[in-house]
Specification:
The chain is an alpha/beta fold. It has one domain: Rossmann fold, CATH 3.40.50. It is built from 5 helices and 5 strands. It has a 5-stranded parallel sheet, sandwiched between helices. Helix 1 links the parallel strand 1 and strand 2. Helix 1 crosses helix 5 and helix 2 packs parallel to helix 3. The chain is globular, with a radius of gyration of 14 Å. The mean pLDDT is 93.
Length: 139
Amino acid sequence: MAVPDIFYVEDNEDFVDVVERAIGQIDDTTVLRTIDDGALALNTLEKLAEDKAKPKLILIDLNLPGLSGLDLLRRIKETQALRYVPIVMFSTSDNPKDIRSSLEFGANAYVTKPLGYANLVKCLSAMHDFWLKTSSSVA
């Protein structure tokens, strides 16, 4: 299994397709891995960590089957080998309770999904530049 640069947990297949296209446009060398279920995502991340193959960034939607985005976030932060991998909650919700809960559970950032493809590319490009190019991580 290739080590993903970005591990994206999202159950909306249409949005995943758009994100994949946008990431390819931003940097065609970035490896994006998508999973559509929270429990499966946790299992996959734990296997990657066992192989010392952690992603550089994890993006998580709030509403997921199997394990909610917040529960997945909490479980990742409780896993020693994954604790320091940066996590951005990436959701359509702009509810202050969702944002507060995400940050309290250990998210590094909360980003509301932008409307329109051009805005999505700008948003993902900013995340890509910050989390994959300029920030330092202890992960």
